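FORM 7B - TANDEM STRUCTURE REPORT

SECTION 1: FIRST PROTEIN
SEQUENCE AND TOKENS:
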Amino acid sequence: MSALPGIDPSNAEPAHPPGRADPRTRRTDRWWLGPLVTVVGLGLFLIYGLIRTFMNSYYWVPEYHYLAPFFSPCLSEACVPGASHWGQWLPAMGPFLPPPVIVLPFVFGFRLTCYYYRKAYYRSFWAAPPACAVAEPHRGYTGETRFPLVMQNLHRYFFYVALLVAAVLTYDTVIAFHGADGGFGVGIGSLLMVVNVVLLWMYTASCHSCRHLIGGRINHFSKHPVRYWLWTKISALNARHMQLAWASLLSVALVDLYVLLIAAGAFPDPRLFN
């Protein structure tokens, strides 16, 4: 067999034995940068979330009705006065079980089982695989058929809880337009909460489970024009699911940090008008 034009057969790399993959990668770009950024981003959010949860303070600004997202809804008797908009259903459970542990497991469950986040932390934390055309260190593959990954199938149920949480945060945002004199007011904090809740709704609506809920099990879109219209809008959001996942994650952390600083008296909330 003649050699291909422009290729010297003597310099060609030897072929690998059948059934054995090349453990090396031929990629020359910085393929490791994406997984590294994901590890740092998600790692910082997890560290902040743990510290914030067990700090269990500086989450309510009574003057402007600012409630930190990590503590909403605050359903424990341990919640500070005014922060329990939906009542205190549960007793105080001590310093090792602060109020956020009631709701945060469901919120994190929605994020952890999200189709995008699965890809993100599978590649970054587990290197399965870290990037396209890069060998992974694992010898076997069982998919999502064993514990704990079989729990990924609960994503659709976490989605329903995420809808409730988004609705609660929307209510928190509405009452955050509270002036110092008790009337209507607008501050930087209330505007940040609006941005946060919009991003959360967009991320939740762009979820694959939401897209299936709207347009799934329909054989003829022409017979369901309203659902078809909604499905096209959800599909457009779904194409930006990754960007919305990161934007909403960042906005939650920033708003929570902002409320913390205001409640701690680090600086006053700049008011546009009271």
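SECTION 2: SECOND PROTEIN
SEQUENCE AND TOKENS:
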Amino acid sequence: MRLKQCPKCGHLRQSGDTSPPEQCPACGIYFAKWLARDSFVPPALRKEETEPDAEAANWRDCILERILHVPQNVSGAQIWGRAAILLFLLVWGVRLGMMNYRNGEMGQSFMHNILLPIHEAGHILFIPFGELMTILGGSLFQLLFPLIIGGALLWQNRDAFGGAVGAWWASVSLMDLAPYIYDAREPQLILLGGHTGDDGPHDWIYLLGEFGKVQRSQAYGAWAHHLGFALMLLSLAAAAWALWHWHKRA
């Protein structure tokens, strides 16, 4: 079999090519074997080609099964208890979302007091990864920690409601970061050390300064606040759907 172009690597045979006509001079395959491989290759040898798709399908099935899981013998008290939690998170989240991110009002909230030690722990955890990641680590871990908690509840306990609450926590954490990001251009917030960004270290002055984007900090802070608020509502909608699914199955 003589082909002008290799079906595997795409090599074009030149007019003066003296290589065997049935073999590609670039990758060395035999054309007849390559073109006929699907008809005679044993399934075990073709496993490598089909396994990634099957594995991806298995992951999708596992996640879907956990999202749709309903505990056995779920009681009305369990459903109404979670409904009360959902209502509380809605009121609290909307109240946080209505706070003024331009002047750091959220820094006076109870949620900020919860997130602050997580933020500081992130700086310590990311020290081995260099200065940039150490500074970024505080904000990054503040977002990742609730997602890890929510993901564990979903994966280990098959608790879609708990996973949605973890997402709510992460979205509120993003709103908590918004004033800090917004403040980088004209520092006014009193930080943990009792100083402003003009007098001492400021995570987002450093981070945005690394990319020459300090002048855009107010736009980024507004974007973080509005995105966090939208994700907060979306996570509550997911939690409400999970409860409704429990109610129907119960």
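SECTION 3: OBSERVATIONS ON SECOND PROTEIN
Residues 38-50 have pLDDT under 50 and may be disordered.
The CA atoms of residues 86 and 240 lie 7 Å apart.

SECTION 4: SIGNATURE
Preparer initials: ____
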